[in-house]
Structures are given as structure tokens and as C-alpha cells.
Amino acid sequence: MKKEPFVTYGQLKEIVKEYPTPFHLYDEKGIRANAKALKEAFSWNPGFREYFAVKATPNPFIINILKEYGCGCDCSSMTELMLADALHFSGEEIMFSSNATPASEYKFADEIGATINLDDFTHIDFLEKTIGHIPETISCRYNPGGVFKISNNIMDNPGDAKYGFTKEQLFEGFRVLKEKGAKRFGIHAFLASNTVTNEYYPTLAKTLFEIAVQLKAETGADIRFINLSGGIGIPYSPDQEPNDIRVIGEAVRKVYEETLVPAGMGDVAIYTELGRFMTGPYGCLVTTAIHEKHTHKEYIGCDACAVNLMRPAMYGAYHHITVMGKDNSVCDHKYDVTGSLCENNDKFAVDRMLPKIDVGDLLVIHDTGAHGFAMGYNYNGKLKSSEILLREDGSAKLIRRAETPRDYFATFDCFDILKDMKYDRA
Ligand SMILES: *Cc1c(COP(=O)(O)O)cnc(C)c1O
């Protein structure tokens, strides 16, 4: 499928007059339509709730849009919990799915009434010692080990993943938790990431529904929800077919009716913790080509770098690039599109065929709406960009300002570099 930016060249030329590149731009219209489609796809399940994985796009404006569609927050750190709390999500709208969890985070999660999803058997004791009791509603994360296959395709490798209880631990965990006073239970699993197939959720659901039936039979636990977590992917590359959330929702319904309903579990709520699927395609990184370099290869140097988008450097991830205003030009130039870090993996694209790029051209790097800005770091002292929302009426709203040197140096309490006003510049 041809990948088109959600913003026009005309709109973008206006936006960059007010906000300098680089920045992440988000598509309010796309986020809304997608959130609505997810809600409708699972409307057959009365308790359904999407807990948006805050780590994907921890921006209050974006999270508040999702809140309008009934989404809660999936958090896995102190500041993510704080963000959800500050946005007035109630306890039951917050899922705390963390691992190697510090005591302070369990304490805070309990204080705000978040649902705690335990990552490990030993955390039962750790949690009880930390907060003085076991919450009445509790969830456990399951890891079946081995490889996760759909048909004969290996999707991911849970046996190598640090997360979750083994099957035996899950059964023992439910018994222990029940003895210690837990009354309502949930089961969670995240077995494959960025799946671009409609079969991931239904396959996972079958595994979890079957285990839920067994857990109920063997431990007598009152299972209230099954959390399919994240993992529904997006087509980063033009040759991938997007998932169809309606088809996914219906296929999960079928498994639910075949597995849970006959076991008298037709009131179990389905939860999801999608991140990438909710915002990934509805964000892009906008950057300006500021240099061209002709050596052993052809390079285009941008004003954005891996600090703004780490996925290509970290995983060799593909992100499609559109050279704005050159839609109809042939892709007859082979470029490495780079940032300015002193790291040779700071490349948004390697050997990519693109139209001829001139200095000053605006490049749109697609699908950065999830795990894009959020993964940013400060290597080379590079500062994080702004985030801008393209509203439904076509206007632009700044939803996070760019970092300044003052922000970067703010933690040097012991060395007051900021006395000097000459550092107050972009
Ligand atoms: C990262 C994460 C998610 C979201 O994953 P996506 O691939 O963005 O859908 C959900 N739940 C947990 C516990 C996670 O760590």
C-alpha cells in the first residue's frame, strides 16, 4: 500500500513557519477514528477496556483524546503512574504492568488504586511486605515459554523473554493469592510484538481462555478479566497489509464463545494494552535536510537524529520517508539519511531509493506516533524536540515544547552552569 503522509505539503509549510523542525506531528483525526474502531470491534464484550500503553506516547494531550473513547492507562513506572493519576484516571482505569518493580512503585500504585499485574511469583511476597496486604483485585502475567507460533510461523520467542510466570507458577500463584485474600483475578500475557496479522490476538486469546478455564476449575479463583496486552502491529513498510481490527475483534469473540461461554465464564471482561496500534501510524517525525555529502556513499544530513527516533539505530527498524513536494518524482537516488550523532548507526535510512533531495527539503519520517519521541534520550547532549498536534480542523497545536539547554543542565544542582544567560538559546 502506498504510504502517504497525513499532512499536506501546504499545511506543513505553514506549520514550520511557526515551529522549527525537527518535531513529531500527531494526527488527531486518525487517532480518533482508530480509537473508535477499536472500541466498536470489542463492543460485544460488555467489560471491554483498552488500557493505552502510556510508554508508547506519554503525552497528556494524546492520552486525553484516547480517554474520550473510554481508554484507561497501562503504566509500568512511577512517572507513568503519576501521569495517569494527574489526568484523573480512576484506580480501575489504571493497569500497572511492570517488571523488576521497585517497592516505591508498588506503594504508589496501591495508593492510587491501580490494578496491579504481577510479573513474577516472588512478587506476591514482595508486594505483601511492601504494601502490607494483597489487593482484592490482582492480575498475573503468564509466559508459556517456548516459541510463539501462528500456523507454522514463529512470531516471537517467549522462552527467551524476561516476563511472566510459568504455567506451574501461575496455578500456585493463584492459590497463594487467594489464601492471602485476593478476591478478583486477571490473567495477562504479551507473547509477540508488532504482529502484522489478524491472527495474533485470537491465537493468544485461545491460549489464555483455555488456561483461565483450568485455573478457575483447579483454584476456584473468580476470574474477572483477561488482558491480551499489546502486540498488534502496524505496517511500517509499504508492502505490509494493515491489521483489520474488526476482523480481530470478531475472531476473539468466536474463541470467547467457544471457550469461555461453555465454561460459565461469559461475563469475563477483555482488556487490551495497545500502544503501537493506537498511535503509531498517527505520528511522524518532520525534519529538514540541512546537508548533502558525496563521499563513498551519498548522504543526506538532517536536523533530527536518533535522539528523536531511536528505532532505526536500535533495531534496524524500517521507517518510510516521504520527501515533501516531490511526490511525483521518481525515486532514482540512493541515500543514507542521517542524523548528527557521533554514532554511525544514526541513520534513518540506509541505501534508500528516494527522489533527489535538496538542502532545505522537508522530510516526513512515517509511523513515529508510538515508541518514537518516547524512546528519546540525550546522547551527545542533543535536546528532545517539540510535539505538535495536527487538529481535525487542520490547525496545529503545540503539545510539548522542545527541550532547552536549561532543561538539559537542570540536574546539575551542584554546578550552577545556568547563571550565565548566554546558554538560553535553542
Ligand atoms: C510495551 C507494552 C505494551 C504495548 O505494546 P505495543 O507493542 O506498543 O502494543 C503493552 N503492555 C505492556 C506490559 C508493555 O510493556
CATH topology of the largest domain: TIM Barrel
Flag low-confidence runs. Answer: none
Oligomer classification: single chain
Number of separate structural domains: 2
**Distance separating the two termini:** 39 Å
Shape: globular
Radius of gyration: 23 Å
Q: Count of DSSP helices? A: 12
* Ligand types: pyridoxal-5'-phosphate
Percent of residues in helices comes to 25-40%
* CATH architectural label of the largest domain: Alpha-Beta Barrel
Work out the strand percent: 15-25%
In CATH terms, the superfamily of the largest domain is Alanine racemase
Question: What is the number of strand segments?
Answer: 19
Structural class: alpha/beta
- The whole-number mean of residue pLDDT values reads 96
CATH class term of the largest domain: Alpha Beta
Question: What does this protein structure show overall?
Answer:
The chain has 426 residues and is of the alpha/beta class. Helices cover 29% and strands 23% of the residues. It has two domains: 28-280, TIM Barrel, CATH 3.20.20; 281-412, Beta Barrel (Lyase, Ornithine Decarboxylase, Chain A, domain 1), CATH 2.40.37. Strands 1, 12, 13, 14, 15, 16, 17, 18 and 19 form a nine-stranded mixed β-sheet that branches. β10, α9 (245-259) and β11 (269-272) form a beta-alpha-beta unit. The chain is globular, with a radius of gyration of 23 Å. The relative contact order is 0.15. The mean pLDDT is 96. The protein binds pyridoxal-5'-phosphate. Pyridoxal-5'-phosphate is lined by residues 53, 55-56, 74, 76, 97, 190, 193-194, 229-231, 273-277, 370.
